[in-house]
């Protein structure tokens, strides 16, 4: 069949670019902020790669044009497995403990703009606990507790409604919000030990607890890494050029400093994991995609629970961009994920809770 410029573009130039982009962002893992930013475009690249695959049997080009798409298919398999899990058989439901990780966004994702509480958001989450759907262990990032209003007494309500006997909170008082913010772990299992994860320069820090489950002890870490902070700021009274210039420079600085801060945070977490005398479970808002160097660093020693026992896409962010999974649970040797769910029915924050069942080996 005669080669045309369109066929060359569809099955040679375009797949070559997509394969190179996929390898650079998902396989090599250059440790710098601009490659981390480029990884956000990988879902689009995988979609375009799928289009190329679908066009091949329809257009039926000459056989040399199948070579580069075949290479593209092979290099796309890894990020596809990290994006979508095909559950070919049902996962077992038996578990020793269930763990939920949830970025509560201070129970109001608009609090930084309004400083006001939204009672219905608290009520919706408390209804989950009242329904008897509370996990054995509840890890909350961006936790908020205040005595300004009855519904804002989150620690008291969660302990009472969830039936938790043990909890650890690493709060710091925020005068702007007039309340305590931080990370919290609530548990139905007794804690043999607990402590704070000090992430230098972070408002929320993290915490850990050694939970005694039957005759075993498992260490649960709950933390949030610094965000890339790529939200633009638009000043209506300023001109178009002034807004664009400000946002380009501002986002550039935030990306660069945010990536460096996350590397420092990750070093702290790595040291804690290496020093742990017990099997470990990590609950975290990484603020990083599965293709990032941050995610891949943790996968060197810990299995991602969604990849091990989830199904579907597992996207955890319900604001723009919707097609990302930045909330994660990982488990180390001695722990096995039995099942995993993204609770897209719980819309309390700008993040969906994720919950998993674990067996201790």
Question: Care to give the gist of this entry?
Answer:
The chain has 361 residues and is α+β, with helices and mostly antiparallel strands.
Explain this structure.
The chain has 361 residues and is an alpha+beta fold. The chain has 2 domains: 5-83, no CATH class; 97-360, 4-Layer Sandwich (Deoxyribonuclease I, Chain A), CATH 3.60.10.10. Helices cover 38% and strands 23% of the residues. Strands 1, 2, 3, 4, 5, 12 and 13 form a 7-stranded mixed β-sheet that branches. Strand 8 (216-224), helix 8 (240-275) and strand 9 (280-285) form a beta-alpha-beta unit. Helix 1 packs antiparallel against helix 3 (42-59), helix 1 (5-28) runs parallel beside helix 4 and helix 6 runs parallel beside helix 7 (154-162). The longest helix has 36 residues, at 240-275. The radius of gyration is 22 Å and the shape is globular.
β-sheet strand percentage? 15-25%
Using the CA coordinates, give the radius of gyration: 22 Å
Helicity, in percent? Answer: 25-40%
CATH superfamily of the largest domain: Endonuclease/exonuclease/phosphatase
Number of helices: 10
Mean pLDDT: 89
Largest sheet: 7 strands, mixed
CATH fold descriptor of the largest domain? Deoxyribonuclease I, Chain A
List the helices and strands in order: HHHHEHHEHEEEEEEHEHEHEEE
| End-to-end gap | 58 Å
Give the overall shape, derived from the CA principal axes.
globular
The figure for the number of domains is 2
What is the annotated CATH architecture of the largest domain?
4-Layer Sandwich
How many distinct beta strands?
A: 13
Structural class: alpha+beta
Low-confidence stretches: none
Task: Name the CATH class of the largest domain.
Answer: Alpha Beta
